Amino acid sequence: MSRIISRRGVLFGLVTVPLLARTPSEEAGRALERELESAVHARTSAWCSGDLETHARYTADCFSWNGIPERQIKRTEVLDTPAFDIDRFEVVSVYSNVAVLRYVYTEYLSQEEGSPFDRQRVQEVWIHDAGGWKTMAAESFEVVGRCGKA
């Protein structure tokens, strides 16, 4: 029987069993969540600053964003000082070497208070291979219109 680990419990078939006590597998789950969140921050920072080498380290060759293959995606603006937040990060599920993540991404045009921003709800699929964790697919939608005020 397959076992899927989620933040809310362990899914056995169609029944979710809550994790009440901190178990070794729960500790491993927390460590995995920290590792994935760190990878998301490193990849996002690389994207914002134009660091293509680091960005590639965390991006699978087959990556697509909202169904568009990465080779068709071009960053039109590189930020001098990347100002972004990743909030409400959660590992939705992990199965074998695949993880599904969700978070809210906010990119600011500057680090000044009241700066215009772009906020999106993001869901990503990450795979683990010999090179570590890499994102292979992402979907997003805007939460607040572009150039909103914080």
Please characterize this protein's 3D structure.
The structure is a single chain. The protein is of the alpha+beta class and 150 residues long. It has a single domain, classed as Nuclear Transport Factor 2, Chain: A, CATH 3.10.450. The protein has helices at 24-49, 52-57, and strands at 3-5, 10-12, 15-17, 59-65, 68-69, 83-95, 98-108, 117-129, 132-148. Strands 5-4-9-8-7-6 form a six-stranded mixed beta sheet. The protein has a three-stranded antiparallel beta sheet with strand order 1-2-3, with no helix packed on it. The longest helix has 26 residues, at 24-49. It is globular.
Layout of SSEs?
Blueprint: E1 3-5, E2 10-12, E3 15-17, H1 24-49, H2 52-57, E4 59-65, E5 68-69, E6 83-95, E7 98-108, E8 117-129, E9 132-148
Span from first to last CA? 47 Å
Q: How many strands in all? A: 9
Q: Under the CATH scheme, which architecture would be assigned?
A: Roll
Helix fraction, binned, reads 10-25%
Main sheet characteristics: 6 strands, mixed
List the keywords.
6-stranded mixed beta sheet, 150 residues, 21% helix, 48% strand, disordered N terminus, single chain, 2 helices, Nuclear Transport Factor 2, Chain: A, alpha+beta
Quick summary of this structure?
The chain is 21% helix and 48% strand.
